[in-house]
Design goal:
Layout (H helix, E strand, L loop, with lengths): L15 E5 L18 E4 L15 E4 L10 H12 L5 E5 L3 H4 L8 E3 L2 E2 L22 E2 L4 H12 L3 E5 L8 E2 L15 E2 L2 H22 L2 E4 L14 H5 L7 H9 L13
């Protein structure tokens, strides 16, 4: 059971949140603009803290990268920098408790039930990859963004906006010049980018069906992105209360793919 999520059920009805992903375009995103917004951060997002006054409202961690023999220490250090912020409420899978906080130094909401339903070799996902009752189970399915989407659904946000959700991953094996994330020192293994790109896009397409049924609006305000599941919008205009659609960017994003999203036309 994941009792730590119980009190957050529909805690943000009528509100919006920003999910801050870790793509390269985050380098070109002024996070100070969302410093006063409700936000969800993840993974090595602390690498950006020195460049902005922004800190996440919520932070979560579900990655085995902390156990990597080469870059595990840098990941652990980064996680601790995020969970050490008093303004941030943190949620972490208990399977990483011994690695991250063996002496109970930090204030962390630990959750015990996390599945990771594996995608097919082409990146297709079973619809069970988006559990809507995360007090019973939360699912990662190869991407932390899936966890963020389930949290946002459970928390009851009426609008969700992504930044740094780029996709377009290329092959990399934990190099010190990481091309797939916002900081070259990030370090993560990306052996099969075609599969990963498709599975991440399919995670978004699956989640969107649940958000549509609820009436939740979801936008992508990433500066450079091939994620075409949601309308691509201008961030600054959105924050001023105006929706400015970046139709040319959406057209370019759609041209990146060789097939439609798995759940684009599926009713759940």
């Amino acid at each position: 059971m994941n009792k730590c999520f119980k009190k957050y059920k529909d805690a943000h009805i009528g509100e919006r949140c920003f999910i801050v992903a870790n793509g390269p375009s985050l380098r070109e995103t002024n996070l100070d603009l969302i410093a006063d917004e409700v936000t969800i951060g993840m993974n090595k997002i602390s690498l950006v803290y020195s460049k902005t006054k922004w800190l996440p409202t919520y932070y979560f961690f579900t990655s085995t990268n902390v156990n990597n023999k080469v870059w595990g220490d840098s990941w652990t250090k980064s996680v601790r920098e995020s969970i050490g912020n008093e303004v941030t409420t943190s949620f972490i899978s208990s399977k990483f408790r011994k690695r991250i906080d063996p002496n109970n130094k930090y204030k962390i909401n630990w959750f015990d039930s996390m599945s990771e339903t594996k995608p097919t070799l082409s990146g297709d996902l079973d619809k069970s990859c988006f559990p809507t009752k995360i007090t019973e189970r939360i699912d990662k399915s190869g991407t932390s963004v899936n966890v963020a989407l389930q949290m946002a659904y459970w928390f009851g946000f009426s609008e969700i906006c992504f930044v740094g959700a780029d996709l377009g991953f290329v092959e990399d094996h934990g190099s010190t010049n990481d091309p797939n994330h916002f900081d070259p020192s990030y370090r993560a293994d990306m052996p099969r980018p075609y599969k990963v790109n498709n599975q991440m896009r399919n995670v978004h397409s699956l989640a969107l069906q649940y958000f549509k049924k609820r009436g939740t609006k979801v936008y992508n305000a990433s500066v450079k992105t091939v994620l075409d599941t949601y309308p691509i919008i201008d961030l600054e205009s959105y924050l001023k209360g105006k929706l400015v659609y970046r139709d040319d960017d959406l057209k370019r994003a759609k041209a990146f793919w060789d097939k439609p999203p798995q759940y684009e036309k599926v009713e759940l």
